[in-house]
């Protein structure tokens, strides 16, 4: 049997989009003449890509996770307050933040699978709970500061042979991406996609549907915590650091050709969707488009991508606004 | 509006491909007013596509369509309607809360003084109903108050109101109860008498012989033959459809020496739906489970498999009493269930042939067993021969091939007990035979097979013993080769003795 690379269905468009955007960047910005420019882009995009990978697990198994943005904010605010500039507390606090993300994912997953509340509602509720808790705890202004050690992951770089200085966040992203891609090739990963496609079929095949969904939420929560650590280092402490990231991650996943409702899509494409989104915002910025337009652009993308996924090849026909030339049975009016 | 001019439609050399896969290749069909013309063929032979080409739903890639000698080309169903051609769909498209007349003229309501002219709508609908001789339906009745058969009449009236002279019917009896089928036969015959041409697509041999004047047979998208119904026997028709003689239809039964120990045993088992079940299935045998719809046949399967577990009695696997309260436990004990709803809970339709085949192994087993790869080529061989490779999504496969994927997914875990519920429902003759042979082959290799089927010839042809259920309990057991009458007598609640 000859092995040939195969793209999961719906992956090709996002790769084309990404390529076009990268070419666009090379033309529009002088910084993108050299690899370092792209490395900087990747570094900026890393937290969103990691969030998109987490969101992918939940979406492909048939759910939504709206809590990740609030979870990022909570992670950063908690870390800043507990570390309060102390270098020695760093390791413990990092573990605590990761544990917190895992716990939030566990609660999301348990409420969804055991109490049978739709994940959209559960995670929306979690978003509000986390937002409220952060506000209560900080009175609206986060206190404390992150240690230099903590900020290394979001800011620092590692000297890698051949490549030179590679940001930590890029290395972490690559490790997560490779692990996620391998996981999705495993039996458990394939079963996760099948759950999004037909839950009953998986259950009647002896699969543990609830555990698989729970796993997806836990992974999403954990990866949101990782994104919080990177963003805290990169962007610093604020009560708005994670706001809106849940929708950005969902947009990225959808842009990656992953079917809302589950059952189809690749994790690499979801990550590519996140990178495309970041590249697009960078390009718009270079072209002098106001940053205020970002959310509008994002809205258009999410609607467009879903329309493309639902209609596929039929889209061109539907979008034809002028009447089609008919060779009907009726004689043309003279 | 009911002048009886007859129409002749001639389709010549019709070809159609989807995504490069040819579905129709040079098919000819002639349809005359006042005839019922049946189109037969296996699943995937191109019957429905041909119908849709005629109705303007699909545009042919090649070939011509003539109506009364004039070449036509349809850009959509509306064009076909204008040429007098309409399809009666399998899924009804009526609005239940509106009246018959409102449904008939939906979107084409006659207007008078800027208002819908209800009186004319009702009068025109009544005229058509009278013309058809359907006086049991009033134009002002709400559709929701009508039976399924009557709704079909309304669909047909709706088509006739657009002056349709050619009606295409795709499996029109699929949604009907047995007594309603006769009503449909009557209606079709009346339509024929009134000069309507009817293109009748159906799987069911008996219907086609009862109703049609001519039969066109398609195989793999090609025209095989067209002959007056009177000149064909059912054997000849099957031969044309399958392209070979089916001969002896069912594989040989098990010899007494082939039977092994009892694999599955129920002792006084029951739950809300079934009661007092005493059943033994041995290695090497196929036990048929017969009964009417709702008699509890499928409930037995679901209970053994732990979907709706038994609450009383004992379930033994290989002689050991077991508590099976969820499918996972059943799978790990070596029990497999092929459900009757292939698309609903058998397959993950958007996943590939490979992923579906491996689903049970991956989802239910642990460790090395879940990653076992050695037998994979043979397993995929069983299913890839029928698909365009193991990476094709199963939703693109025909019903028969999908069923083979379901079977392959269970073979991947080598079950000891295989329960199949309607294993050949909705699949074509050739695939049916392959499934039968596969089941017998599994039995020969020591699997205990419990087979549920509504199709009595299949059940009788395949089973080494037949258990008949009635009203949630076993009504009796019959030996191999029992008559259909004996099975039905038990299934309807009469003793064997009463069958003369």
TrEMBL record, chain A:
Record field: transmembrane: 38-59, 66-83, 89-108, 115-137, 166-184, 214-235, 241-260, 267-289, 295-315
Protein name stated in the entry: ABC transporter permease
Database matches in Pfam families: BPD_transp_2 (PF02653)
One Gene Ontology term of the molecular function aspect: transmembrane transporter activity
Keywords from the named record: Cell membrane, Membrane, Transmembrane, Transmembrane helix
Domain of life, source organism: Bacteria
Bilayer topology: Multi-pass membrane protein
Principal location: membrane
Annotated GO CC locations: plasma membrane
Location relative to the cell: Cell membrane
TrEMBL record, chain B:
GO molecular function, one term: ATP binding
Pfam entry (one): ABC_tran
Keywords on record: ATP-binding, Cell membrane, Membrane, Nucleotide-binding, Repeat, Sugar transport, Translocase, Transport
Domain of life: Bacteria
Residue ranges annotated for the ABC transporter domain, each copy included: 9-245, 259-496
Principal location listed in the UniProt entry: membrane
Cytoplasm is among the record's keywords: no
Classification via InterPro entries: AAA+_ATPase (IPR003593), ABC_carbohydrate_import_ATPase (IPR050107), ABC_transporter-like_ATP-bd (IPR003439), ABC_transporter-like_CS (IPR017871), P-loop_NTPase (IPR027417)
Subcellular location, record wording: Cell membrane
Membrane topology annotation: Peripheral membrane protein
Cellular component aspect of the GO annotation: plasma membrane
Identification of the protein by name: Sugar ABC transporter ATP-binding protein
Source species of the chain: Micromonospora costi
Lineage: Bacteria, Bacillati, Actinomycetota, Actinomycetes, Micromonosporales
């Amino acid at each position: 049997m000859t092995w040939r690379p195969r793209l999961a269905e719906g992956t090709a468009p996002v790769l084309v989009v990404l390529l076009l955007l990268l070419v666009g960047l090379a033309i529009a910005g002088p910084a993108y003449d050299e690899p370092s420019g792209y490395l900087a882009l990747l570094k900026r995009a890393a937290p969103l890509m990691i969030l998109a990978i987490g969101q992918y697990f939940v979406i492909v198994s048939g759910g939504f996770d709206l809590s990740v943005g609030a979870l990022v904010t909570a992670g950063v605010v908690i870390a800043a307050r507990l570390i309060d500039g102390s270098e020695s507390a760093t390791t413990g606090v990092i573990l605590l933040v990761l544990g917190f993300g895992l716990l939030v994912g566990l609660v999301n997953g348990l409420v969804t699978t055991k109490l049978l509340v739709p994940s959209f509602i559960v995670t929306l509720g979690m978003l509000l709970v986390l937002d409220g808790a952060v506000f209560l705890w900080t009175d609206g202004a986060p206190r404390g500061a992150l240690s230099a050690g903590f900020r290394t992951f979001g800011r620092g770089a590692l000297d890698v042979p051949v490549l030179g200085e590679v940001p930590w966040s890029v290395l972490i992203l690559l490790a997560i991406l490779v692990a996620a891609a391998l996981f999705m090739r495993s039996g458990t990963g394939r079963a996760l996609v099948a759950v999004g496609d037909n839950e009953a079929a998986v259950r009647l095949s002896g699969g543990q549907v609830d555990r698989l969904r729970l796993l997806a939420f836990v992974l999403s929560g954990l990866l949101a915590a990782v994104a919080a650590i990177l963003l805290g280092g990169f962007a610093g402490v604020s009560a708005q650091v994670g706001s809106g990231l849940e929708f950005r991650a969902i947009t990225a996943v959808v842009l990656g050709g992953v079917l809302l409702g589950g059952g189809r899509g690749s994790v690499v494409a979801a990550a590519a969707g996140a990178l495309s989104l970041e590249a697009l915002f960078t390009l718009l910025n270079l072209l002098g488009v106001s940053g205020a337009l970002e959310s509008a652009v994002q809205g258009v993308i999410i609607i467009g991508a879903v329309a493309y996924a639902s209609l596929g090849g039929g889209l061109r026909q539907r979008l034809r606004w002028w009447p089609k030339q008919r060779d009907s049975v009726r004689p043309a009016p003279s | 509006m009911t002048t009886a001019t007859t129409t002749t439609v001639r389709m010549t050399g019709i070809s159609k491909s989807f995504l490069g896969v040819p579905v129709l290749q040079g098919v000819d069909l002639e349809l005359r007013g006042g005839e019922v013309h049946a189109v037969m063929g296996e699943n995937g032979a191109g019957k429905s596509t041909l119908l849709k080409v005629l109705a303007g739903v699909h545009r042919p890639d090649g070939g011509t369509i003539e109506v009364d000698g004039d070449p036509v080309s349809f850009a959509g169903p509306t064009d076909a309607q204008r040429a007098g051609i309409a399809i009666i769909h399998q899924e009804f498209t009526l609005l239940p809360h509106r009246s018959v007349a409102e449904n008939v003229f939906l979107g084409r309501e006659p207007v008078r003084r800027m208002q819908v002219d209800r009186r004319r709508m009702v009068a025109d609908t009544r005229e058509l109903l009278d013309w058809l001789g359907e006086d049991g339906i009033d134009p002002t009745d709400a559709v929701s108050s009508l039976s399924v058969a009557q709704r079909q009449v309304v669909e047909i009236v709706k088509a006739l109101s657009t002056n349709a002279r050619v009606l295409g019917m795709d499996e029109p009896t699929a949604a009907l109860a047995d007594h309603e089928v006769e009503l449909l036969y009557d209606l079709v015959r009346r339509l024929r008498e009134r000069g309507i041409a009817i293109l009748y697509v159906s799987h069911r041999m008996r219907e086609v012989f009862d109703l049609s004047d001519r039969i066109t047979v398609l195989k793999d998208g090609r025209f095989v033959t067209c002959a007056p119904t009177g000149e064909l026997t059912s054997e000849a028709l099957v031969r044309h459809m399958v392209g070979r003689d089916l001969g002896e239809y069912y594989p040989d039964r098990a010899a007494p020496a082939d039977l092994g120990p009892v694999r599955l045993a129920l002792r006084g088992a029951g739950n809300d739906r079934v009661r007092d079940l005493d059943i033994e299935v041995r290695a090497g045998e196929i036990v048929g489970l017969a009964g009417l719809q709702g008699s509890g046949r499928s409930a037995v399967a679901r209970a053994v498999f732990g979907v709706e577990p038994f609450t009383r009695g004992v379930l033994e696997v290989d002689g050991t009493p077991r508590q099976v309260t969820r499918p996972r436990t059943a799978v790990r004990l070596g029990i497999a269930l092929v459900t009757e709803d292939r698309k609903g809970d058998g397959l993950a339709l958007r996943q590939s042939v490979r992923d579906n085949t491996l689903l049970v192994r991956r989802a239910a087993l642990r460790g090395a067993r879940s990653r076992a790869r050695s037998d994979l080529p043979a397993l995929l061989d069983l299913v890839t021969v029928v698909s365009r490779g193991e990476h094709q999504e199963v939703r693109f496969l025909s019903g028969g091939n999908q069923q083979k994927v379901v079977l392959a997914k269970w073979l991947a875990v080598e079950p000891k007990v295989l329960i199949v519920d309607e294993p050949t429902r909705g699949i074509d003759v050739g695939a049916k035979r392959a499934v039968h042979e596969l089941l017998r082959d599994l039995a020969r290799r020591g699997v205990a097979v419990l087979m549920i089927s509504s199709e009595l010839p299949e059940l009788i042809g395949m089973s080494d013993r037949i258990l008949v259920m009635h009203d949630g309990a076993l009504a009796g057991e019959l030996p191999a080769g029992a008559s259909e009458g004996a099975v039905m007598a038990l299934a309807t609640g009469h003793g064997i003795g009463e069958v003369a």
